[in-house]
């Protein structure tokens, strides 16, 4: 079924943890509608009778649905044919375009993250940038699907984007040549010193098994045993809850991985280790998990689970802070609701909603000359209008700790470039593994 395929694909382009969709249909309105429904219907009638122009029912009903969902939280939404078609494109594993993930923020198109190695990344587009014009045309206020449609196009064609980057006085133009975007959820490399580096770019289907296979390949490439493993979840916006559980289970042999708590008692579900994979596939191997402000949802589940079980050392920057679960509920053959149905909690009972995952060692990205400015202006869950509030309460000081200066990290981007270091966070993690050996495997 087309809709089922779409649901499985949703992890490729949205920062949500997904659950299997339950059967659903249009709710039947009772014969005696409540006063609130009466007001809604009265408003509809007045608009139909008195608005200056004729308005189609489809426009009014869609507006009412969007308004209801917008009053809930930033992650609940109505998906119709256009949006579902976009998700279908993503499940194919490749498409022609820029290789960029965007969202709407107060009518503006904001870059969540360019995909690794994409034309957008190669052109210098960065997370947090705002796209204000496409080929000289203002796109402020445009629907997100319309903006994405304009950025898509045949491979080899060029597009000019006008970029506003927070912290800079003036906007600037960037010409990007579209390409065929191959979505690779997992990539890996063996770094000198027998250190494995596995990058998980999104939690789509089979990520757990892909990481297991990547680890086996690294072990076969190494001269002797691996010294350590860097599990890189930076700029990973999330995806499938099942795959987050599977990836965590690779490295855990006992205990809980994550729990979710919904409105009703039956919505409380726990996910335990040893349910997907038996044992720790990398037992004794020290692991460092890298996260940043772009690590969200499923990424935070993995980082939180490995951190709580003392299986890995978490480095980088505080994560995005999306601690809610969205379920896709079909309405018709070509429409569905993406509805927030639960909050999730790490094994120790922490909710990462708003506060995110705090790294064990904060490591700034010194190789990025704009990193400090980007951190000050970074958009996180707590900045989104209408976000769910952390039930435990998150003190402002806790949200500011990652902005404090650390005397250990004083080199400039230019100095690091002279040393040949283009990714300071990764370099620091690798040097830590080489220096400490198995000491970071369990604390």
UniProtKB/TrEMBL annotation:
Belongs to the peptidase S41A family. Residues 84-152 form the PDZ domain. Residues 1-27 form the signal peptide. InterPro entries: ClpP/crotonase-like_dom_sf, CtpA/B_N, PDZ, PDZ_6, PDZ_sf, Peptidase_S41A, Tail-specific_protease. Keywords: Hydrolase, Protease, Serine protease, Signal. SUPFAM superfamilies: ClpP/crotonase, PDZ domain-like. GO terms for biological process: proteolysis; signal transduction. SMART domains: PDZ, TSPc. This is Peptidase S41. GO terms for molecular function: endopeptidase activity; serine-type peptidase activity. PANTHER family: CARBOXY-TERMINAL PROCESSING PROTEASE CTPA (PTHR32060:SF30), TAIL-SPECIFIC PROTEASE (PTHR32060). GO terms for cellular component: outer membrane-bounded periplasmic space. Pfam families: CtpB_N-like (PF22694), PDZ_6 (PF17820), Peptidase_S41 (PF03572).
């Amino acid at each position: 079924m087309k809709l089922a395929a779409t649901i499985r694909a949703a992890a490729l382009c949205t920062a949500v943890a997904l659950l299997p969709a339950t059967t659903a249909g249009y709710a039947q309105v009772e014969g005696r509608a409540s006063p609130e429904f009466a007001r809604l219907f009265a408003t509809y009638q007045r608009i139909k009778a008195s608005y200056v122009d004729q308005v189609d029912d489809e426009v009014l009903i869609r507006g009412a649905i969007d308004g209801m969902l917008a009053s809930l939280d930033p992650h609940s939404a109505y998906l119709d044919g256009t949006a579902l078609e976009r998700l279908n494109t993503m499940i194919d594993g490749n498409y022609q375009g820029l290789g960029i993930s965007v969202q709407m923020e107060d009518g503006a198109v904001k870059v969540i993250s360019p995909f690794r190695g994409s034309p957008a990344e190669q052109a210098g587009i960065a997370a947090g940038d705002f796209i204000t014009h496409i080929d000289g045309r203002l796109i402020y206020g445009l629907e997100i699907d319309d903006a994405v449609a304009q950025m898509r196009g045949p491979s080899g064609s060029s597009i000019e984007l006008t970029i506003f980057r927070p912290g800079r006085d003036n906007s600037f133009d960037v010409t990007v040549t579209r390409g065929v975007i191959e979505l690779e959820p997992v990539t890996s490399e063996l770094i000198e010193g027998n250190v494995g580096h596995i990058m998980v770019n999104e939690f789509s289907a089979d990520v757990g098994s892909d990481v297991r296979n990547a680890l086996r390949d690294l072990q076969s490439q190494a001269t002797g045993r691996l010294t350590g493993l860097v599990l890189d979840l930076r700029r990973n916006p999330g995806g499938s809850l099942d795959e987050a559980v599977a990836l965590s289970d690779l490295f855990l042999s006992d205990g809980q991985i994550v729990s979710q708590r919904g409105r009703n008692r039956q919505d409380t579900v726990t996910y335990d280790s040893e349910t997907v994979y038996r044992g720790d596939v990398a037992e004794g191997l020290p692991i460092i998990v890298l996260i940043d402000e772009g690590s969200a949802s499923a990424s935070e589940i993995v980082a939180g689970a490995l951190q709580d079980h003392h299986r890995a050392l978490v480095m980088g920057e505080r994560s995005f802070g999306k601690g809610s679960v969205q379920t896709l509920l079909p309405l018709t053959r070509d429409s569905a609701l993406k509805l927030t149905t639960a909050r999730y909690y790490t094994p120790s009972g922490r909710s990462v909603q708003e506060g995110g995952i705090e790294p064990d060692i904060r490591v700034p990205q010194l190789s990025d000359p704009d990193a400090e400015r980007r951190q000050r202006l970074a958009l996180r869950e707590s900045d989104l209008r209408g976000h769910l509030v952390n039930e435990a309460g998150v003190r402002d000081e806790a949200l500011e700790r990652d902005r404090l200066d650390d005397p250990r990290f004083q080199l400039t981007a230019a100095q690091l470039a002279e040393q040949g270091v283009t990714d300071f966070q990764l370099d620091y993690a690798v040097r830590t593994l080489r220096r400490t050996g198995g000491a970071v495997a369990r604390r």
